[in-house]
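Put briefly, the fold is written as integer tokens. The lines below illustrate.
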Amino acid sequence: MAQIKNIGLFTSGGDSPGMNAAIRAVVRTAIYYNIEVTGIRRGYEGMIKGDMFPMDRKSVSNIIQRGGTILKTARSEQFKTPEGRKLAYEQLKKNNVDALVAIGGDGTFTGAKIFGHEYDIPVVGLPGTIDNDLCGTDFTIGYDTAINTVIDAVDKIRDTAESHDRLFIVEVMGRDCGLIALRTGIAAGAEAILIPESKTGLQAVFERLESGRKDKSSKIIMLAESGEAGDAFEIGRQIKERFPNYDTRISVLGHIQRGGRPSCMDRVLACRVGVAAVEALRNGHHNEMIGLIHNEIAYTPFEHATKHNTDINPNFLKIVEILSI
């Protein structure tokens, strides 16, 4: 059993709903095991600057239902340098921190992996990202809330699309991973979905529009941001040129997907992995992400957990094709 006395806790990268629930779980579990917790504001940047404070039960009261992160988050260019990481380590030692829990995604864990190898401080991570693009967990904290936020928005867009016989191109987050667009596209009954992992190009969308029902009063095209075909405005321009009879409109959902109260699923996931993170440190784990696979706690080395590009299950794309007729 590792003798951990003071856990440094921080969130980094893009915020995601459920981070506060994870913070609460880590703090209260640490207190349960008589371990101190030091909150680190604004991720690695705050670590370098020594922006740290002691956390107790009261500091995490009434936050489980709140979106965002009470610890704030930021990206740090300085931490990418050996000099920056050395400053961070010195600040941790100054504040008597002897272990770390990092809540974030690919960039967070890449930094944690390097830092954990350079210095004698155990680090574990919790998967906090709306993109669901990490290996080692079936779902990431924030993903369920984000896709439900998108569904709520697209349902409202469908109402106005039906009323005006319009075609809407809806752009969602997912620069390198199209899971948000894919799942919400299926759930919203989209006519076509454009995602980075699929080789389906704009020509296939044109063919879908040409062969689809002409009497359908509304059409939705779901798009993951920054795809090969271009952004929503470029795709909208090309569709207008090809199909001038369509009343084509653009809706970019943007950062609305990051906000809002976390869903029950995200809260429970955050609580489970938050408790497991503290117990993992006590049991000697380090340089690992704590996730949930087949409803069981799983430990994945950072180098295997970071962002991956995998082939999308073709059955999902087939579902879109079948159900859009």
User: Anything to note?
Assistant: The CA atoms of residues 155 and 198 lie 24 Å apart.
